[in-house]
């Protein structure tokens, strides 16, 4: 009887402990991740003076600025929610360059700067602002373009769960 129980319980325990919950890409990649034109993009810095991600909440909560940097690729992604004249809380905000609601991608090496604009789809969904731990989390996506030649870029599957500073 003891052997029968052991042969049933041990495989069940192994199966139970090997099953895991799906983690978000943001948690796998330092609190921020997205896809740029379908390719995984993650923050990375090789300079101890820089941070891979930065977030500030300013103007008494009326402005949120998020920046992620990849020094290896010499690229940066910026999300800005500002100009709403009210305290920004959990919710969805269109990234359409109106009143400081902006999605931005910059490649230093190629000197290519892409921004959102009217007619281009984009949204940041702030899921949580935890004042105790000073962390903000959410999801985002946006299409942006280079004004000189209307070249477009698609940022999708964006997630963040990062610490913020208040100024």
What's this, in brief?
With 167 residues, the protein is mainly beta. 13% of the residues lie in helices and 48% in strands. The longest helix has 17 residues, at 2-18.
Main sheet properties: 6 strands, antiparallel
Give the low-pLDDT segments: 4-22
Helicity, as a percent range: 10-25%
Strand order of the largest sheet: 2-1-11-10-9-6
Q: Could you say how many structural domains there are in total?
A: 1
Beta-strand content estimate: over 45%
Q: C-alpha Rg, in Å?
A: 20 Å
Distance between the termini: 67 Å
How many strand elements?
Answer: 12
Question: What's the overall average pLDDT, rounded?
Answer: 84
Structural class: mainly beta
Pattern of helices and strands: HHEEEEEEEEEEEE
Q: What's the shape?
A: globular
Number of helices: 2
Set out the fold topology.
Layout: H1 2-18, H2 25-28, E1 32-36, E2 39-41, E3 53-58, E4 63-70, E5 75-81, E6 91-94, E7 101-107, E8 112-115, E9 122-130, E10 135-146, E11 151-163, E12 165-166
Parallel strand pairs: 3-12
Antiparallel strand pairs: 1-2, 1-11, 3-4, 4-5, 5-7, 6-9, 7-8, 9-10, 10-11
Description of the molecule:
The protein is mostly beta strands and 167 residues long. The chain has one domain (24-166). It contains 2 helices and 12 strands, in the order H-H-E-E-E-E-E-E-E-E-E-E-E-E. The radius of gyration is 20 Å and the shape is globular. Mean pLDDT is 84; it is low at 4-22.
